[in-house]
Every structure is written in C-alpha cells, then in structure tokens.
Fold:
Amino acid sequence: MSTVVPERAVQTLMNPASVAVIGASEDQHKYGGRLLKMLLSHGYRGHIMAINPVRETLLGVSAYPHIDVTPVVPDVAVMAIPQPKVREAIEACAARGVTAAIVITARFSDGGAEGAVLERDIVSIARSANMRLVGPNCLGIISPAHRVVLCPSTALVAEGLPVGRVGFVSQSGALMGTIFDKAKEIGLAFSHAISVGNQADLELCDFVEYLIGDPATAVICTYIEGLKDPRRFAELAARAREAGKPWLAVSSGRTQAGAQAAFSHTASVAGDRAVFEAVCREEHVTLLDSPLTMIALATSLADHPATQVSRIAVFSPSGGEAAIAADEIESAGLRMAVFSDATRTKLADYYPPSQAANPVDTGGRTVGDGPDVVGESARIVADDPDTDALLFAITTTPTLHRVASDVADALRRDPASPTPRKPILYVFETGRLADTARRGLLERGRYFLNNLREAVDVLAAWHSRGSYLPPGRPVRPADCPLTAAGCAAHLPGKGTYGEGATREWLGRYGVRTNEERLARDEDEAVAIAGELGYPVVLKVASAGIVHKSDVGGVKVDLYSDAMVRDAYRRIVTNVREHAPAAVIDGLSVQTQFKGRLEMIVGARCDAAFGPIVVFGAGGVLVDILAARAIARAPADPDHVIALLRRLPLWPLFEGYRGVRLDLAGVVDTVVRVSWLAADLAARQPAGLDFELDVNPLMVADDTCCAVDARLRVAARSD
Ligand code: ADP
Ligand code: MG
Structure:
C-alpha cells in the first residue's frame, strides 16, 4: 500500500491551495462556524469551499452539499463534526482524493476503547486512499506565516495574526490556543503552530521535520506528552542541531515516581523520565517548565541564535528590584556581569561612582530625567565585554511611559532593525500603569514579561544550552572482545546472573574486577583466603539472594583464618534466618579492595531510547545520594567526563582535601559497561532487555575496581 509521504502531506497541510470546511456554519458558537470565519478573517489566500447540506453560501463563501460536488478536489479538508459522523466524512474525503484531513472532533482513543477502534478505522480508511490525517482530538493548524488558519480556537477571534519566527507543535490543543492568546498579548508570535491531538496518523515529529526545513521558522518549540517514535525524535533533534535551529520543549510527566529497586538500582534511578531528560540534553533539546518561558526564550534565540548566556547585567529604576533580580540570577546558576573599568567610568557620568556597577539602579542617577539617560546606560552596559545579556526590571518611575521604548531604541543593532545588539529581557513588575510602556515595546516588535521569575527562567534555560557538548563519536576500546555488535555467542543469554557470573562478563569487556573464588565449606574458605592473601571479604553466593548485605551475607575486613571461619558461620546463620528459602551455593571469598568512594555504574535497555548507562555515587548509599548521570550507550569518554563534572562528587576527581580519585579508570569503566550494554541491546535477532548493576565500583586514588555486580537479561518486549 503506498501512502503519501508525510513530508509532502505536511507541506500541503501547512500551505494548502484549497480547503474544504466540513460542517461549516455561520454560527460563531459552533466549531464549524469559527473554522470558516477564522480562515476568512485572517486572510487565507486559497480557495475555500464550505460543505453544508442546506446552504448555498455561508459568510459569502460558496457552499456545497457534499465534498463529492466541490468544483475542485480540496487539498485539505477540516472537520469539527459530531463523532458518529466522522467516519463517513473521512470515507468521502478519501474517495474524493483529498491530500490530508484535519479531524478536530474528540472522543476517539482519548475517550475509551470504542473510540480507539473508530480511530484505527479512520486511519486505515485514509491510508488505503493515500490520504493523511491530523488529529483527531486536536485544534488544527495556525500558520501566520502562510495566513492559513485551520483552527476553531476562540483565541483567534481577536483581530490580527502577528508573524514570528517560532514554530510550535503541541500535543495539547487547548494549550496551543491559550499560549497563542497570551503570547500575542506580550509580543510573542509564531511562524506556525500545530496541534497534533491523538497523533493517530501524522505526529509531532512529522511537523517538527517540516519546521526544520522551513525558512520562516528560526526556532522550534514543542509541547510533548508522549513520543510516538522516540528514536525518530532523537534523529530529528540531531538534524535540527545540524540545521542550526534550536529546539525547545516542555514535557509533562516530570514527577514520575521512581520504580522500586526490585532487581537493580539502575532501574529505579534511571527511570523513563530521567532517560528522556538525558537524551534531550545529549541532543541539545532544551527542556523548560512553562510554555510561556519556552516561547519567550525561542523568540530571543531567534534574534541571537549563537549567543551563549551566563553573565547578566541588571538595571532597574528601583534599587530594591535590582537587588532582588541580582539574587534571583545568582541562585539560578547565572552570574552577575562584572563591568570593566571603561564601563564603570562611562556610567559614572550618570551615577555616583559607588553605584556605577552591576546592578544599575537607574533611579539613583545624579543627572535629571533627560530622555537618553536610561537608554544610554543600557547602551554602555550592552557594550561591556563581560555582559552576555541584559535584564531590565521595570518598576514605577516618572518616565515609565517611555523608558522601555527608549532602551529598545538605544539598543537597536541598526536603525532599520529593532533587533537589539545584545539579548535583553524586559520585565514589567508594574500593573496597568505600564500599559503605555508595554504598547511601546509591542510597536517595536519586542516582547516583555510580567514576572521577574519568568525572565530568570528564560535566562537560566538559555544558560543551560551553553553546556551542551558536540555529539560524541564513541570508539570501542581496542581490547573489548566483540568487533561486531550482535555476535550472540559472546554475550550472556537470557537469565539472572549473580556476582560471580556477572564479573566474568565484565572481565571480558575489560572492566577491572577483584579476584574471587567460591568456597563450599569453612576449610575451603580458609584455603582460598590463604592463596588470595589477607584481608579478604566473604559473601553469600545464592541465586535467591539479590541484595546480599540486606540478609547479613557480606563480611569485610577479615584478616585471619579465625576471622574467616567466624565470618563463614555468621553469614550462614544470618542467611538461614533472613532468607530461609534461599539455597546457598557457597561463599565467595574475595580480595578486599578499599576505595575512597563507592560508585554505581549501571546499564539498562530503555524501551524508548535503547541502551543507556547510569553512574554516580553508589555502594550502600545508593538510595540516599540521588545525583546520577545518564548517557546513551555506547558512550563517548568526553561525554562521560562532562556528565561527571555535573555531579556533586566531581571535586573528588579534581582534588578535594588531598583526595584525587582515578578519573581515567572510572571513565574507562563506564565506557566499557556502555559497550556491553550496546552489544546486549543489539544482540541478534531482536536485541535483549537487561538490567546491570556494578555496585560498588570501588574508586581509589589511582585505580578502581568492581567488587559487586548483577545482571538480568530477558527478551525484549517491544
Ligand atoms: P550487596 O550489594 O549485594 O549487598 P556487596 O557485594 O555490594 O553486596 O557488598 C556490600 C558492601 O560491602 C559494598 O558496598 C562494599 O562497601 C563492601 N564490599 C563488598 N565487597 C568488597 C570488596 N571486595 N572489597 C571491599 N569492600 C567490599
Ligand atoms: Mg552491591
């Protein structure tokens, strides 16, 4: 069955030559009424056909009783009709040869099992006729850039459809409408905004792909509830990055409760959400908490795509407001710019010398209210080499009506363009009193925020983009055994592997492990200890016991034969008491390796994004020290180092109170574990699901060693 490639259908949807509005009406209380009206009132230049069984014209547009009898085949049909009528309408569109249909109607898979069946039906009807679908349960498409509005949102009733350079794809229709309305009020505008609804056919990524190639779009924004095709998401993110188009996202579901650590800690610390966030970071997709700050950042990035932001200059007519802003900036991980002597000297023309610094209290100036003072201050500050961006926190002041416009004019990159020479955020802390000032900015094509916290969020998210790494090129360590991924014979098959067996697999991948042997009785334990050399560690070996120390199954610091015998007996007693059902295979006698830090290095196969490694503080503290880093496997050493840098334990690798741990060894271990993970995930024919914990990896000053590990391998369910 051939289908219209999504790309072509999306091109048509975003700029159709003709549109049929099914269920069109004149009643503005109805979806079908607003659909028609919006198309007309926002200046659509193509051919509109209203479909209505009883009318000849609607709002001056020719109406037809059925899509079969329109004078031309419409490129796109849009419908907001009762759910029971949708199937028939889709059949009619399919039969007529429509390229794509937008189904606004809800109560499909969003409304239960019956709706889900109907949804599958309409998709297959469309597919068999080579037609593509948007929705159902969506709010359609708003394209200011093309003057195409296929959206019944009341947000569009107001006049004017400002054109911006931010493309927005939303999984929530109401959110798109709401943001559209609010954005307009504060000077934010879009190239295109698309609501994808249930994504029964075309999905978020189809439209992101369009935006990547769209010359009218400089920055891509998305609201994501769940990805239909996570791998495609990652591929497109790489393409957006290569195209130099920033991609921002708000994604709900942040507070996913971690799964209980049944088998591995990895599964609980590297849950789906944590992996999604890690992938976004790797692929340079910036996550924000609120849609409005996302659109604001996108708008600023459209003007300054290559600018990195960390040092902020603050100015305000209120010393108090300026001080609060400075605090917020510092606590968001940004830095207050330190002005150069030249900047301070220039500012001293207007301010007392002690105040000619960051933050600039423009209310404290020593000169009068000359029209240029605040604008000139902004220009001086913008020219300061230590300033990446400016934050103008506007409070009541006698010149309130024009102060923001003065600054906007003073900062123009050139007289013809309102784009400022450096990023600047305007925040009005004032109420309606500042409405004239707000209008002044809107007239200049500038946006503003009404809340300091939002502005700081924008700057903080911008700052986070500065720590993105170039994409890594993982190289398989020379002595890792496999040369081709998927070579089944060299990899563990399905099953649960305790410490002994897992060590062997780790050993084959070049991970350093300590020496151990299994003893079946006390005498044997003493003999092995003698061969290994004291001190030794004794641990229970039993397929039925996952967390050995929980059942009193681990004894460390054993320095003599007598201690080994004693420990042997105690372990057996403890295990019989705490895990009576477990069959004891024997006791592992192993060399003791003392490190200064215990780390966890884990791996698992994420259902969405494939194999990952996770690493951070581990050992018995694994449950309480939460900070961990996640990377996709195989991992690149530079990337691993960059992630380690962000962990609270990083100072231990740089030199902290005389401690300087084996960074190279830890990175090497993470990389090797990542290759094992990648090979397991790629194991033919279908790849394997797995959970692996190395916990702890003992880390000393110049060496490190895995002293415990477990692995579970299963068939992949997807
Ligand atoms: P489990 O995680 O199953 O409870 P471990 O083998 O990780 O058991 O042992 C628990 C703790 O004992 C480790 O976190 C570590 O502190 C210590 N330990 C275990 N094996 C060794 C070893 N070979 N050398 C030094 N300390 C060890
Ligand atoms: Mg352990």
